[in-house]
Amino acid sequence: MTKIYEKFPEITDVKAKVLSKKFVNNNTYLILDKTIFMPQNDTLLDEPGHIGGRKLLSVEKKRDNIIHLVEGRENRTNLLLSLDKEARFHNLYYATSFSLFKIFYSSYYKAERISFKLYEDYGDIIITNPSRDFDPNLIEELINYAIDKGLNLNLDKGIVELKSIGKTINNLISFDNTYKIKSFEIKEALVEENRTVISFKAGNE
Description:
Layout: E1 2-3, H1 4-7, E2 13-24, E3 27-32, E4 34-35, E5 49-51, E6 54-62, E7 65-71, E8 78-83, H2 85-108, E9 113-118, E10 123-128, H3 136-149, E11 153-156, E12 159-162, E13 166-169, E14 184-191, E15 195-202
Parallel strand pairs: 1-4
Antiparallel strand pairs: 2-3, 2-8, 3-7, 5-6, 5-8, 6-7, 9-10, 10-15, 11-12, 12-13, 14-15
């Protein structure tokens, strides 16, 4: 199966061939030769979609396959896949921003762990035991500098690299150039006993 979202996440419509199917309770499980749909996760927002005009109910990863569940009984061999472009780009703005944040943060500071959670209109980056001299404004300036310069991002096997600066793990999705993020703004930096929570906005918002 070709996972189009790994290299070309901006594609939101594509035709695919059904490799196998299974009917359960008047719904259909499908394995396709290619997909634009990411398996559902606890970090990004769900991306509504359709396969062959049928509502997509769930997307799960099992071994090396992506299992799609759609409403109704689907018997066709060739199907059009389409997902909500606004939802996909919302996820891309924030997931790519998180990758840049980690790359620049690790160039200057240390932390026990850095995690991310996306909401409908903002994202939270949670830094566990950050360096005492951590300056959120510096990271914000660096990210916006990268956006202005339009730097290439290399994506390969779950790794995002900003050449000559650094790389980080990204098992989500990412743009291939920093300018596509459009904007990055830290709205709040909440300092707690063992962690700092960075609330930010990105993209067109």
